[in-house]
Write a structure and sequence with these properties.
By secondary structure, the chain is an alpha/beta fold. The protein has 16 helices and ten strands. Helices cover 45% and strands 16% of the residues.
């Protein structure tokens, strides 16, 4: 009998050593997102559908409201991974660092903002902006740079043909417009659609449609974290890719129902409208691969905005091996 008991104990201890006696350890990964938006629907699908859990990952998601705050959280060790515009990694690199921030998975591939007019119009023309007051986004941020890029493509000088406001904090832009500031405003969803529904403005154009494909929002981390946690990052990216595929294969209505718990104060109708709008303009990346053409497009836009101190090679700040592997490329 003692031999049998000893054998059972030995087997259990041996199993515990190998796999926690049947239980896999769940890893905590802290993610700082630049804003909380339906624009990031695949991330929320991965959370709500349990794709991260199936990869033994527990996501601790924090909204940091602004690119500068998001990057500060990452660099200071307050987060492991940041979801933010990839231009921020270039800023950090050009300032000089021994531990550069590396982009490893792309989430969105177009601008996610819309031009909202205070006054209703049946026939909008970009020339209507001339002489107006335009409430833009933060200087040096991707939304503002894409906004200026599009205006220039429409033969509008954003610093001479209109009054451009750029000193309003990211989190307060919508409130500023609602309070009467500006004739036009550049807004993310779902705020743009909510304003339209409430009669506070009218969506007249999409900056995503008018611009080019770029790595608008990517997951990134410090190089040191990637080296020490590559297997975990690979599982993270695998869960993300499953969500990207799921979003591509399902309707806006189905996606809206899944991510509604992330937007409890937003109606299901608005969520569905926004998702359909983003799907229609191909804003959601189909896979996590950040290719060189998009990277170059990004730096062209940064250069146009006089925000690019020095060109940075794709291979310097982009790690594609993980995304390639999980997506079978």
């Amino acid at each position: 009998m003692k031999k049998i008991i000893y054998s059972i104990v030995f087997v259990c201890l041996f199993s515990l050593t190998l796999s926690g006696c049947g239980q896999s350890k769940t890893e905590e990964i802290r993610v700082a997102e630049v804003t909380h938006s339906i624009f990031y629907a695949p991330l929320y699908v991965a959370i709500e559908k349990g794709f991260f859990e199936e990869e033994q990952i527990n996501i601790e998601l924090t909204t940091t409201w602004g690119g500068d705050k998001t990057m500060t959280a990452l660099l200071s060790g307050g987060s492991d991974i940041a979801l933010v515009g990839s231009e921020t990694s270039i800023y950090v690199y050009n300032q000089g660092t021994d531990d550069p921030v590396i982009n490893f998975a792309q989430l969105t591939q177009t601008d996610g903002t819309f031009l909202v007019s205070r006054d209703e119009t049946e026939s909008f023309s970009w020339n209507d902006l001339k002489g107006s007051t335009f409430l833009g986004q933060r200087k040096g941020g991707m939304p503002q740079m894409v906004g200026e890029f599009v205006l220039k493509q429409k033969q509008i000088n954003p610093h001479h043909d209109l009054t451009l406001i750029q000193n309003v904090d990211f989190a307060n832009i919508a409130n500023a417009f609602a309070s009467g500031t500006g004739d036009y405003v550049q807004l993310f969803e779902p705020t743009a659609s909510i304003f339209e529904q409430e009669g506070l403005g009218q969506i007249v154009a999409s900056f995503g449609k008018e611009s080019v494909q770029i790595p608008y929002t990517t997951f990134m981390s410090k190089q040191s974290y990637l080296k020490e946690n590559e297997e975990s990052v690979q599982r993270f990216t695998k869960a993300l890719f499953r969500a990207q595929t799921w979003v591509a294969e399902h309707s806006a209505q189905e996606i809206a129902k899944v991510i509604q718990p992330q937007f409890k104060d937003t109606s299901l109708e608005i969520i569905e409208i926004v998702i359909e709008r983003y799907k229609e303009q191909n804003s959601y990346s189909l896979n996590p691969i950040l290719d060189e053409k998009e990277w170059n497009n990004l730096q062209i836009i940064m250069d146009e905005a006089n925000e690019l101190r020095q060109y940075v090679d794709h291979e310097t700040l982009v790690k594609t091996s993980i995304a390639n592997e999980v997506s079978g490329q």
